């Protein structure tokens, strides 16, 4: 290991840049659909050794001394985000004639921007760098802090935070209930980087010892949480939920009125199928995001057909576009919404999306970028509007669902205090935009981790998948294979009773940040011995 670390530390020029990109790309193997979490050990061990060799000239100023570390971190991030997000380009190929020109921006431009966060993390870590285990603590501190910033700066995009690589299975997800994904990220970086100490000796025993303790606590808490008695069937008559996955090709939604009518018919047909193996008739039926391919409130026939197919006490929850008339001479506003429809075809509840996808659902700085010809991938005049706030969907039975549309579920900070009153998280999405790529699988993992964080079951309906019912510990209770057309019925279980809320999770995250930061600082000051 010492010979290998020496070669990595001393590598230079083009080979050094290529190795940094490769190190980042290797880490993606820890994410879905691979789930090979050991890849992160290789990734971060290489990053530590590369930063060991990131030295500037003696006459360099403050920024000049940080530049080599920033460059290594940026290259590492570029490799990580290109390998982990290349599938975003698939959405632009749905209407290739219109958007193919933007492929380089999606595949390379966004990763180049996101990599800045990792570049800053590496530069910040280098400020606190020391020869012993303090340097892996500095790296954990810096990555935890920058992943936190990435979760909300510039509208936020915390997709594939490093901590998800440490949570490929329910056993390894349970720590998120206490620390949140950002707290797991902070400690995971420390653990993933620990093997670097084998190559440079200093701080080997205390550093690897602490990493082993953190890993043991991670697995141990997971075993403990999963060994607790399973949540009982929920109160409120334990409703049966049917999750519909129609597997509609995205291009079909953009075609003729006949195609749209066929899509609507398919959703209805799957909704009224008899339960498998003589099970209980569903009380709640859930369709995916924007599954109604027309403005539902303008189509009374569609509402009548829903009423004809549903029993009086059944509820349909569907994604749809909601339009709001702003008055004479003004453009209407469109919302990406969820409707709650009762058995008489009446809309009895709705929730609008609050966190829109930039360039997908709206164009930032539209007055400027629109003039340059940049427009939304989704064709609506002016794009979607964002709702001012989110609220629970309360069904006639008393069941309360916390609604999250599409990628809203990847944001831990999207959870308002109301979620403590919910019986389940409801996530509707349409990942058909991304085809059979890693994207839908990565999205599903992040949705499962939200369920674990909040201690709530997850009801997830996705057009092409992954649709599933997940319990409050992130375990897949029932689901539908990707791209398979069908449905699953599941009985809503009780939420996990827990005193841990988002405020406490945030406190534990900052304690983790403070802990590794303190190790880095006192090591930098020479108060931690550097011996083996």
Automatic annotation (TrEMBL):
Subcellular location: Cell membrane
Keyword Transmembrane helix: yes
Stored PROSITE patterns: CN_HYDROLASE
Domain CN hydrolase: 244-494
GO biological process: lipoprotein biosynthetic process
Pfam families: CN_hydrolase (PF00795), LNT_N (PF20154)
Coarse class of the protein's main subcellular location: membrane
A GO term for molecular function: N-acyltransferase activity
InterPro entries documented for this protein: Apolipo_AcylTrfase (IPR004563), C-N_Hydrolase (IPR003010), C-N_Hydrolase_sf (IPR036526), LNT_N (IPR045378)
Transmembrane annotation, as ranges: 9-30, 66-87, 99-124, 136-157, 177-198, 205-226, 507-527
Keyword line: Acyltransferase, Cell membrane, Lipoprotein, Membrane, Transferase, Transmembrane, Transmembrane helix
Pathway field: Protein modification; lipoprotein biosynthesis (N-acyl transfer)
Keyword Flavoprotein: no
Enzyme Commission number: 2.3.1.269
GO cellular component terms attached to this protein's record: plasma membrane
Family: Belongs to the CN hydrolase family. Apolipoprotein N-acyltransferase subfamily.
NCBIfam families: lnt
HAMAP family according to UniProt: Lnt
Protein name: Apolipoprotein N-acyltransferase
Organism: Rhizobium paranaense
Gene that produces this protein: lnt
